[in-house]
Amino acid sequence: MKLSEATLAWQGWRNKRQTRRRRLAWSGSVSLAVIVLALTAWGGFAPLINVGEQGESLTVKLGNPDGEDLPLSVSALPDQAMQALMSARQDPAMMAVEETRESAPEPDALPVKSQPPTEAKPETKSETKPLPKPVVTEKVIRGSEKGNSSELILKPQGEKISQNSYWPVYLFMPLPTRIEAAILGRIKATDLYSIDERRDLLLQFYNKTSEGLSLGSDPGLAVRPALWEILEEAGYDVANAEYKRGRNLTPVVITFKLGTPRMPGENPPLLEAKVEQGSGSNPVDEAVFYAFQKSTFANGTGLVAQGRYTYDFSSRK
Question: Which long-range contacts (CB under 8 A, 24 or more apart) does 280-286 make?
């Protein structure tokens, strides 16, 4: 399969970043080893670190120099650092709200007409009371991000089902085709990349024109989060992004099922996920569905659970 020039450029940029991260990781490891040896020789290492009376173990994580530059895969278990990053990208006015409620009961059967009393029989049996119907509960998780809102419903036994991790959907939305050139001057550096490096990445997919910047080629769903992050931090109005302007997008509704984990500690498989209702824009539907499939869940019911996910393009509480 022949790769596009945009994809090749992206891969080249990523390879350079990986090489730099390897060097930084190894130099950091060597520096830490030198410091530890120096403290040990000096005799002041023990007073600086207290491992407790029982001698609890101390674990130091230096990171993986071969790791990807972008967190494009979701771990099987919840990652606290990733969850903190995802929460920081939500609107501060409304974080995710979770509740467990009883599902609407099914209609009761028609009442049975009373029979006339009959003569008592010598042998009487105690009346058997009908077994109570199991209470069906559902978990509802509502959230808001960048002018959009979402609702996730999980059942039955909602108290035993949860969503472990997720990706913000807006990071995968279609990129704006045109942006002002002044945004290049507002790009910010991060701990890993300088301003020039992030600007170069943006210009791999955007072309300079007399009217500003024009999207030359779409980098694809997997790369969009990196570009959306650059644009957002440079002041682009994500809540009023181009993909929403002048459109009456209807909520995207996804139905799915959750299987049972094959092994303890594993996530249940996502089954039969499909878009029941689209927004009216195929690229938008594709972005919502792609982001949703990156979610991980927990299912402790022992049964196949059902779910319904709605992504609305308005901030509803």
Answer: 280/247, 280/248, 280/249, 280/250, 281/243, 281/247, 281/249, 283/174, 283/243, 284/173, 284/174, 284/243, 284/249, 284/252, 285/252, 286/221
Residue 124 covered by a domain: no
Residue 141 has φ and ψ, to the nearest 5°, of -120, 115
In this structure, the answer to whether residues 27 and 142 fall within a common structural domain is no
| Residue 62 located in a structural domain | yes
Structural domain harbouring 56: 9-69
Main-chain phi, psi angles of 164, to 5 degrees = -80, -45
Closest CA to 281 of 314, 313, 237, 240: 313
Specify whether the CB–CB gap between 251 and 196 falls below 8 A.
no
Which two three-digit tokens encode residue 285? 């539907």
Res 83: pLDDT: 45
Rounded Cα distance, 200 and 157, in Å: 50
Q: Which residues contact 40 (CB under 8 A, 6 or more apart)?
A: none
At residue 203, the pLDDT reads 96
Q: In this predicted model, what pLDDT tens digit does every residue of 103-157 receive, in sequence order?
A: 555 444 344 444 555 555 555 555 666 655 556 688 999 999 999 999 999 998 8
The answer to whether position 114 is within a domain reads no
Q: Kindly state whether residues 42 and 181 are assigned to the same domain.
A: no
